[in-house]
Amino acid sequence: MEQKVAVDLNRYLEDLERRILPEEELRLEQEWITFADGQCREEVFVPRRKTSKPSVVWPRVPINDAFKSYDLMILQQLAACSEHLQKGDGELLGIRSNYGTAIIPTMLGAEAFFLPEEADTLPGCRPFAGGREELLGILEKGEPDYGRGFAGKTFEMAERYLEVVKDYPKIRRFVHYYNPDLQGPLALTEMTWGSELYADLYEQEEAVEQALDFFTDIYIAFMKKWKALCPDFDGEHAVEWGLLHRGGTMIRNDAAMNISGEMYERFVSPRDQRILDVFGDCIHFCGQGHHYIDRVGKLRGLWGINLSQPEWNDMEVIYQHTIDQGILILGMPKEEVARARKEGRPLRGLVHCGASLAAWENKDRR
Fold first, then answer.
1. Rg, the chain, Cα only
2. How many helices (H) and strands (E) does the chain have?
3. What is the pLDDT of residues 196-226, one digit of tens each?
4. pLDDT at residue 145 above 60?
5. CATH C-level class of 36-365
6. Any idea where the domains of the chain sit in the sequence?
């Protein structure tokens, strides 16, 4: 249950409200829309805003503490907005219900586990004790309870945030409450099924497909429910990690690095396509993706990708199947942009140089 922790949010909200410059944020939004629509005239998109220093000391709220109180999580998330304003970087201001990757699994009854406080990273979940059979049993029960587990907290925190900012018009307008981390059908299946999933891709194909379809349905239903509470930036664009993109969601394909391109096409691509057909969107992946990026690049309605570790990828292959085909790359670390430009690799105005606020990301990349 959410605990009542005394937090004077108003002093921080007042600080943020004072420092938000509407003319700067409107300019940035228009620059992002121009980039997202493929109309950037520069070789690389590197947005910036005027710096604005805080008048109060914003506290650091450890992730484990943020899970104890909606107000503490709001404070933790708004502190990132304060940092954007102080540094003068070009990411749009945004916060989310920061409950990590286990939002949907805990909604189905998976057990969450927290890391020690010194790790300061988001919790995960354990696979169902009964593995495949337990998951398949849950599939047969029908409609899940969206108030259960971290899913319930995700919606309740958004409701709390909307309540506390109602008297702060600039925050309401320019701090975007973006989509929670719902992962994607493959990652959700892995988290609840367990690592046996990878052998069962060969040995239990029908059961795997059943689970992937189930999680695709849940993803779409959850996202529709979420958007009713927290609508997108506009009818054509959404904000994620401060990055504005076309479409309405960003699928996290973090588990796809563990399978071949052929397996991605066979099992994952049809489910990603179903989500794309509903929302139009972007795809994020950690680790290597060059082995299946050719399949990703063929998806209808894909506007962009966000990858976490270019140094683990054959970036020429990535570029050939993304920006060379008109698909944007968002959140590219400056080191890779510098390398590509030094080697004369055209980036076509379709690469954003910056870093998204993934929870694990090294601070020197922010």
1. 20
2. 16, 11
3. 999 999 999 999 999 999 999 999 999 999 9
4. yes
5. alpha beta
6. 36-365
